[in-house]
Every structure is written in C-alpha cells, then in structure tokens.
Amino acid sequence: MLRKNHRTLLIMLIPGLLYYLIFMYLPMYGITISFKDFNIIEGINGSPWAGLKYYEMAFGSSDFWRVFKNTLIISGLKLVINFPAPIVLAILLNEVRCMRFKKVIQTVTYLPHFLSWVVLAGVISAFLSPSTGPINALITAAGGEPIYFLANKAWFRPVLVISAMWKEIGWSSIIYLAALSSVDTELYEAAMLDGAGRFKQIIHITLPSISNVIVIMLIFAVGGIVNDDFDQVFNLYTPAVYSVGDVLSTYVYRIGLEGMQYSLSTAIGLFKNVIAFVLVLGTNFIAGKISDYGLW
Amino acid sequence: MIRTRGEKIFTVVNYIFLTLLAVLMIYPFWDIVRISLSTPAEAAKLSFTLFPKEPTTAAYAQVFRNEFIWQGYGNTIIRILLGMPLQLVLMVATAYPLSKKDLPYRNVFTLVIVFTMFFTGGLIPNYLLVKSLHLDNTIWALILPGAIPTFNMLIVRNNFMSIPTSLEESAYIDGAGVVRTLWSIILPLSMPILMTVALWGLVGHWNAWFDCLLYISDPDKYVLQAILRKIIIESAPQFGDMAVMTTEDNVPSAEVVKAATIMVSTLPILVVYPFIQKYFVKGVMVGSLKG
What we know:
Chain A is mostly helical and 296 residues long. In chain A, 73% of the residues lie in helices and 0% in strands.
C-alpha cells in the first residue's frame, strides 16, 4: 500500500487512540491513589504516599474476606448450574424439526437478555413478593407459609443463580446451536444405518462434535469467575442479605462512593482486577493451546 | 426416517419440556402485565390469577402523567442519538486502519487497545477522571467513557479483514483515496455487521443506568433506566411513585404503578425486539470466529 495512504490511515486512528489514552489509560494511572492517602483537594498527584496501608487495611478486614467468599461461592454456583444449562437447551432445540416452534422458543428464551437488570429486578421482586407474588400464592395455596425470597439468607443465592439463568440461558445457547448446525448430517445417517437411536446419536455424535466449543466456553467461564454480576446483585440485594449476597464489585461501590473511602475502594478494585487479569490470561493461554478459538 | 417408539416419546417430551420452559420464562412478564391492569384491591391479594378480573388502566393514566418518565425517555433518546453514531464513526475509524496488515506499528496499537479489555482502572479512578474532566452532570459523561466498545470494534475490524484486498487495490489503481475507498467499497460490504454493532450500541445505551447513577445529579437529566430504578427499586417517592399502600379502588397502589411503569418503559424494546433479533444473533456467530 502507498505511503500516502498509510499517513491517512494513521491520522484516522488518532481519535480512537486518544479515546483509549484518556478513558482507559488515565484511569489506570489513577490506581496509584490506592498507594496514597487520597483526598480530593490535593488530587491524585498531590496526595501523600501511604505505602501498602490500604492493602493491609483491606486484607485485615473480615468484611473483605466475607465479600470475597460470597463472590467465589456465587460465581461457583453459577458456573456449576448455569454453564451446562444452555448446552442442554441447544441440544434439545437442535432435535426440534418444526422450524416455527423452534423459532418461537428461541425468541422467548433470548428475550430477557435484552432487558436491563433494573427491569428484571422489578419483575423478579413482584414475582417473588411475599404479599402479592404468584409463587407465594402457590405456596400458601398448598398450605405453606409465604417466603420473603429476596430478604431471606437461605434463598438469596439460589435467586441469583436462577435469575441469571433466566436472563442468559437462551442467549448463551446460540453459540452451541451454531456449532451444532455445522455437524455433518452424514454422521447421523451412518449412525442410523448402524441402528443408533436418537439418544445414542446425541451421546456419540452431537456431544463429541461440540465438545471443543464446550471446553473453550468452560475455560472462559472459569476465567471470569471473579467478575461478579454487579448489575444483578446491586438491583436485587438489600441490607438484610448483605451477609450472603454482597460481592466484591458491590462492596467496592459502597465503600468507595457511599463511604467515600477512595483509596481503600481502589485497592480492593485493583485486587479484583489483578485476579481477573491473571485468570483470563491463563485461561486464554490454555484455550489457545487446545484450539484456535479466540478473539485475536 | 425410521422412528422407534422411544424416539416418538422423546420428541413429545422434548416439545412439552421446551414449551413449559418458554411459558415459565415468559410468565413473570405476563404477571407484570396482569398487575399493571388490576385494581389495587385485586393486586394486593395473594392469589394465583392469570387475568385481571376488572381490568383498569388507571395506573397507566398515572404513569403517563409522570413527567419524570417522559423526561427520562427524552434523555435516553438524546443519549442514543448522540452515542450510537459516535460509536459507529469511532469504531470504523479505529477498525479500518487496524485491519491493514502493513500499517506501521499495527501490532503495538492493537496490543494497547486489546489490553484495555482485560485490565481497567476500576470504579473510583474512572469516577475521578469524569469528575476532573468536568463531564459530570452532562450527557457526555454517559457517552464519552463508552465511546468505543472494544469487543465490537474488533468484530468490525475482523469483518474488514475478511474483505478481499483485491477490491481495494483496484480502487486505489483507479485513483481513489483511503476515505473514498472505505466509504464506497468497504462500508457497503460491511452493512450487516455495522447494523449488528449499531443495534448492540443502541440496546446498551437504552439499558444503561449505572453511569447515570454515578455521574448525573440533576433528576431532570436522568435517563429512563435511572428513573425506573428510582421508582421500582428504591421506591423513591419524589419520582412520582405512589408509595402509600391503598385499597381504594380509584387510586392505583404502589405495586400497580410500578408494574405499569415497567410496562411503559419496556414496551418499545418488546415491540422492536422480534424484528431486530436476527442481527443480534448474527453478531454472536461472527464474534465467535477467530479473525
């Protein structure tokens, strides 16, 4: 390509690079406040250094460890339960021969993905309401006592897991459906000639042929384990369930922006970011070894 | 096709299961529709019903009178009209140079950009940046920090890279410059993917609420989702929610108003969703392929 064209292309790139410099790299510099006694008047550069004071404060507090534990438990539950769910859905959808039926089910199951957690939390809190919700109507009709699911320590985590599944099961199944659509139909025909029924076909052809995608998605899911779902937890939780539902990102928000402890909040945020970064790099590396799946 | 009895049973069970799943997933939304059309007395009952016995639109009348909702709508629309085109222009302007394999320092630029997908400053440093740029309490605080969604930009770049270079080369030979080639050859060929990322941006802006909570202090500048959060999650009375519980039939109760508020603010997306769904799905497929 011509030199002149290169110059034009580089000029074209300037606004984008400025964006990354200002809105991505400047905040990274801002992380230094976690090593300082930051105050707004003196600013990031003027505030005095504090060494590891805020990291010691964070790691020494029981709140921090409780929140870290909650994050791991909730993410772990979501991984175990919500990871296989879309695979099962994709396999079942793949067995449907009536295209119109399939389309309707897909449209319905993708829908919650497009709504914000604000809307979904509003829907969930009406649905699970102890005084007017249909679930508690059924419980009381069956002779039980109403349960205040969103304020109940035993129920809050299951609610998070199930509502996350509700939002994403359909959308997450798309990638598996795409993989399934590329399976060679001759394999099924050959299996049928050998007398394999529907179940045997699923187990011996369908699953192995998408196992590559499953492994890669699993690796990425493990890599994202500290990326708790802020929007979900923040819109659903109340102080009554902080002990089981408060996660790293909501904790960082509360101590930082409600408690104004900027340095401490940034220190905990960095801790979370570093773990996430290491996990993503590690899992990406493994994924790259196993297949050529990846964004770059 | 040979069908054994077991297969027939499987097929029937499969259809029943998928139907049940879809019904279960849609039912919570239907219940909001039901509550929004109920009388306060009926909505306050703990009983399982599918349809309101005496449908009334009193709650909708109240929601329509709530100026915050309309203001929120207005602010959300402004946000989309400014934010979506800006995203598109910046994504294309960044993706196109990066799609050229012989661009000087291409790998450095790509690394610098991709790194930000995995490591960020975090909540407080971002907050302090927006404050120190004096963007807080302006619409720009909602538009500039997310002006280039990196993942989407890379999808656009990958799409540009998949276009045969011979097409561009012949344009250069005919004397067309970079901008002209991009405009009249590359962009027309990339319409489906641009449509997809534009719609992702639209839904992202429509659904965003946290940045508004962080940066906007004047309630009359709140976007719709932020107003929604105030009304349905925080039950903040100053945003026009009837926080008082009442069983009088003529005054809608808090629950009914909340349900109607959810309906009014979600209806636009429910209406267009079936038509734009295929573009979203397409993006997932493209995004999953290595560029």
